Amino acid sequence: MTIEQQVTLLTRDTNRTAAELEILRADMNARFDAVDQRFDAVDQRFDAVDQRFDAVDQRFDAVDQRLDRLEERFDRIETDVRQVIELLQNKA
Predict the structure, then answer these.
(1) Does the structure show a pLDDT above 90 at 32?
(2) What is the mean pLDDT of residues 31-39?
(3) N or C: more exposed end of the chain, with fewer CB within 10 A?
(4) Taking 80 as the threshold, does the pLDDT of residue 26 lie above it?
(5) If you average pLDDT over residues 33-55, what whole number do you get?
(6) Cα–Cα distance between 61 and 68 in angstroms, integer?
(7) DSSP characters for the chain?
(8) Of 7, 5, 3, which Cα lies nearest the Cα of 15?
(9) What average pLDDT does the segment 71-88 reach?
(10) CA 33 to CA 44: how far, in whole Å?
(11) Distance (Å, rounded) from C-alpha 88 to C-alpha 92?
């Protein structure tokens, strides 16, 4: 085989390899894009769940505040009842 034939074969192999690399590059880019889209979808789902947790947290805070106000009311009622009992005992 002559040098020219070897060069021709090497050139053909090189071109074929370059084409295969381009196909692989395109395939890998498509796969990375698909994975990126999946991560974006998962990220959106996590954002939605996070918003739901924030809403639940706000509801719990509101309930906690209501319970605190109820506790204050009960404390005042208890104090008032004790005072009434003391007044009644002092009159008796």
Answers:
(1) yes
(2) 98
(3) C
(4) yes
(5) 98
(6) 10
(7) --HHHHHHHHHHHHHHHHHHHHHHHHHHHHHHHHHHHHHHHHHHHHHHHHHHHHHHHHHHHHHHHHHHHHHHHHHHHHHHHHHHHHHHHHH-
(8) 7
(9) 95
(10) 16
(11) 6
For the record, the structure tokens of 51 come out as: 């918003």
Question: Which tens digits make up the pLDDT trace of 65-74?
Answer: 999 999 999 9
Residue tagged 């209501």 (tokens):
66
Alpha-carbon gap, residue 68 to 3, rounded angstroms = 93
pTM (two decimals): 0.58
Instruction: Return the structure tokens found at 33.
Output: 């894009």
